[in-house]
Design brief:
mainly beta, three-stranded mixed beta sheet
Length: about 325
Amino acid sequence: MAGAPAERTPGGAAFEGHTRPMRPRSAAVPSGGSRTVEVAIRARYRAPLRDLFGIGLAGAVLVAGLAMVRGPLVPAPVRAGGASLAISLPSAASALAAATAKGGSGFSYTVVSRSTVYAKAGGPLIEVPDPADPYKVGGTATSYYAGASIERGIATPEGTWLEMRGGPATVDAAPDFAKSPITLSALRKGGVTWRNDGEGWYVTDAPPGIGLDIASLALLPRMLADATAISAPKAATLNGKSAATVTATAVLADLPGIMAVDAAPFSELAGPVDLTFDAQGRLGAIHARVRNTRVTTFDLIVDVTITLDFITPPGPLPDPVPVAPSPTPAVEQ
C-alpha cells in the first residue's frame, strides 16, 4: 500500500499558544529560545507540524485553589519491598492539596511528552523522510516518532513556575532537563501570571504548558476523586524506591492540558491512565496516552509521563526578571 503524508487539519500551528511567541518580537530570539519541537519535526516529517497537531491560541483559564476531595479507595493493598502499601486516592488528593496550601512544602515535577504517528489498520502507510533530504520520501512505515517536548516545574503555596525544553530527538533517548534548549516558561506569583518566550517576562492570560500547566495542576486532586474502574495495585519502583501502581479511567476535564495547554477540544484519552503512589501514599507519577482527534488519516498518539517529587524541597519561585522589551511597533510598507 502506498504511503501518504499527514492530512491537513484546521486550526493553527502545532502547540501554538505555548511553543509560539504570543506577541511581536523586538529582536531575534536567542539560540535555544527559537528551536521548538516544531522546528525539529518540520525537518523530519513532510507535513508541517501545524497540520500534524493543530493546536489553537486559546489560553487555559486559571483555576484557583486546591480543594480537599473524597474519592474511592483502591481495592486492596499491595506488598512492595516487604512492606504493605495501602493506597487511598482521597488521602493522595489531600496530600496534593496540602502541599500547595498555606504552610505547605510544595513539590516539583517533570513532564516528558513524546509524539508518535501510527498507520491505521487498512489505511495508508506513513511516508518516512529521506535522512539525506527531509523533504523527500525515503520509504514508508507503520509508525513514526514525530518528536518530543519536556517540562519541569514547581508548585508551592506562593504560586507555580514551569519551564519547557526541547525533548529527545529519538525514541530511545533520555530527556535532558538541564541542557536541552529552553523554549518557553510560565510563572504565577503574587496573583499575576507571567510568560517568557525567550526575550524576557511579560504579563499574560495565556501561559504555556504541556502535561501539567498552571490550570491543570490545580485539578489533580479532582482527577483522583473522579477516577473510576481502579485496578488492584501492583508493586512498582519510583525514583529507586518501592511504590505501587494502579490503572484507572480518568476524565479529560480533570487533565485538560495533558496534551497541551489549549488542546482539550481535540484531545482524547486513548485508554486508562497509570497512577503510581510512593511509600507514603502520595501521587508520584501519571502516565497517559492521548489521541489528537484532528488527525484522521493516521493515529497521532502523545505519550505523557508526569513525575512528582514531594521529597526534594522545590525552592523559592523565581522573580519575573528580566522583563521583556516592549514590542516594536509594526512599520507600514
